[in-house]
Fold this protein.
Amino acid sequence: MSLKSQVTPYSEIDVSKKGQVTKMFDKIAPYYDNLNRVLSLGIDVLWRKKAINLLKKESPSSILDIATGTADLAIEAAKVIRPKQIIGLDISANMLKIGDEKILKKGLNDVISLEQGDSENLRFETNTFDAVMAAFGVRNFENLEKGLAEMYRVLKPGGTIMVLEFSKPRHFPLKQLFNLYFKNILPVIGKIRSKDEKAYKYLYESVQAFPDYKDFTDILKRLGFTQADYKVLSAGICCIYIAKK
Ligand SMILES: C[S@@+](CC[C@H](N)C(=O)[O-])C[C@H]1O[C@@H](n2cnc3c(N)ncnc32)[C@H](O)[C@@H]1O
C-alpha cells in the first residue's frame, strides 16, 4: 500500500507509517493509560477482560502479546489465564518503559517479559506460541497482512490468535452518537491531555479505514487461519476476533 493511501498520524511524506506511529506512541506514552480510562469511561478495561476470558478457554501456556504497549492486556492475561510465559512486544520504547514499571510493581516479572521489536518482522521461530494476541494494535501496522502473517507463523499448529480492535457501530442511534463523539469530541480531549495535535484524530481516521467484522475474518481466512469468528462488544464499538492455526 502506498503511503499516500495509508492513514498516518502525521503528514510527513518522507517518514513511513511505522516511523510516524512509533514517534506518536513514544510521545503520548506518559498520558496513554490515563487517556484510555477517561476517553472510554473505563470500558476499555472491561473489553480487555472479556477478550482474555475468551482466550482463557484455550488454556495457552505460552503467549505472545503483539503491540503490548503499556502491557495492560499481558497483565490481565497473567492474572486470569496464569500461563507459564508471556512475551510482550512493541515498537515504542517509551510505552514499554511504562509497561515494565507496571509489571514490576505487580510482581509479574517472572511471567511477563517485554521487548522492543516490529510485529511485521518477528525474531521468534515458526510454531512457538500457544496463543498470539493483540489489543488495539493491528490497526497501526504499516502492512496489516504482513503483521497477521507473522502472527500466524509463530503460532503453534492448533494455536489461537485473539485480536481486540475498534470497529464501526452499524446501527442507529449509536452509530450517529458514537461518530459524533469519536470524530469531534474525543480528538479535542485527546489533544489537550496528550499534548499531541494529531494522535486522537489519527485514532478516528484509522478506525474508519480498518477492515472490521467479516472483512477482518476474511483476511484471517485468506492468510490460512481457520474457525475465524468475531464477538461484537458495546454494540459494535469494538470486536474480539478469534481464529486457529
Ligand atoms: C493503541 S496501543 C495498544 C497498546 C495495548 N495493547 C493496549 O491494549 O493498550 C498500540 C500499540 O501498537 C504499537 N505498534 C504499532 N505498530 C507496531 C509494530 N509494527 N510493531 C510493534 N508494535 C507496534 C504501538 O507502539 C502502541 O504501543
User: Anything to note?
Assistant: Residues 3 and 16 are 7 Å apart (CA to CA).
